[in-house]
Amino acid sequence: xxxxxxxxxxxxxxxxxxxxxxxxxxxxxxxxxxxxxxxxxxxxxxxxxxxxxxxxxxxxxxxxxxxxxxxxxxxxxxxxxxxxxxxxxxxxxxxxxxxxxxxxxxxxxxxxxxxxxxxxxxxxxxxxxxxxxxxxxxxxxxxxxxxxxxxxxxxxxxxxxxxxxxxxxxxxxxxxxxxxxxxxxxxxxxxxxxxxxxxxxxxxxxxxxxxxxxxxxxxxxxxxxxxxxxxxxxxxxxxxxxxxxxxxxxxxxxxxxxxxxxxxxxxxxxxxxxxxxxxxxxxxxxxxxxxxxxxxxxxxxxxxxxxxxxxxxxxxxxxxxxxxxxxxxxxxxxxxxxxxxxxxxxxxxxxxxxxxxxxxxxxxxxxxxxxxxxxxx
Length: 377
What we know:
The chain is of the alpha+beta class.
C-alpha cells in the first residue's frame, strides 16, 4: 500500500474514532464543523466531510437526514471497541470501590456472587449476567412452606451458601397455616436432631413425605446438573437510556435478558475463550440493533470457571466498561480463590463442558459423598 494512501486511511479512522467518542457523549448526529471544534481544528471542514462520505460508503457512518450530521453504525462501534480492546481506562475510585465491596471473607458464595452482580450493575448502570460453577459442601439451613391453593404449596429451601431453591409440593388435604408452621418445625427437627414437634397423624405423614421429596429433588438437582448457575440483575436500569425508551427496543432487550439459555451460551463462549468478548448490534441477532453485550471470564486458582456479562445500549463507553469489567474479574477471582481455600470449598462444572469430570456413572456416588444435605450443627 502506498504511504500516502495508508496515511489517508489512518486519518479516516482517526476521524471515525473522534466521531464515535463525541457521539457517545452527546448522542446527537455529528457534523463536520462540530467535530472540527472538538479536537480536529487542524483539518478543514471540507476534508472532514470527504472523510465522512468515504466512511459512510464503507458502512461506518449513516446520515439520517440529507442536511444532518452522521451517526455511527454497528460496524463503527465494533471498530471502536476493537480499537480500545486492551484499554485500561479505570478510575482509581472505581478500583477502590470494587476492592472495598468485594474484599470479604465469606462461605456464602452464592450470596456473594449475587451481591457482586448487584454492585457491577450499580457501577455500570446496566443489566448483568454471571455464570457460576456448582459449589460443594453446601448445607440446607432452612425450609419454608407457603400455601398457593387448596392442594399446592411452595417450598422455599435456603442453603448455607445463600442459594434459594423453590419447589411445588402437593397435599391431598388442605393444610392450615398452623399445620404449615408445625411441618416447618418438623423439617428443623430432621435437619438438626433437636426436639421433635408434636404433630397430628396426617401432619406427621405429610411432613415426612414432603421432607423426603424435598431432599430427593435437591440431591438430584445438585449432583446431576448440565448447565452453570446464572445470576442476573439490573434490567430496569436500561430504562434510563434513550435507546430503550422505544417500546419495541425495550421488548427485544427484555427478550434477550430472559433467554437464560442464550445468555449461558455467550457466557460459556467467553469462559472458554479465556478473554474479554463483545457482541454488538446485529451480532446478537433477534433484531437487537441497539444492544451490546460485553463479557469477561473469571477464575478460581487460575482456571476459568465462569464469566460476567454486561447488557447495555450500543452507545456505551467501551474503554471504561472494558476497564471496569477486567478489574472486577481480577478482584472477584482473587476473593473467590481465597475464600474457597479458606473454607475448604470445592466446585464442579457442568458435565456438558467436560472439564475435570469423570465420564462413568460412578460420578454420582463420588459426588454424593460430598453433598451434606442436613445441617447437624
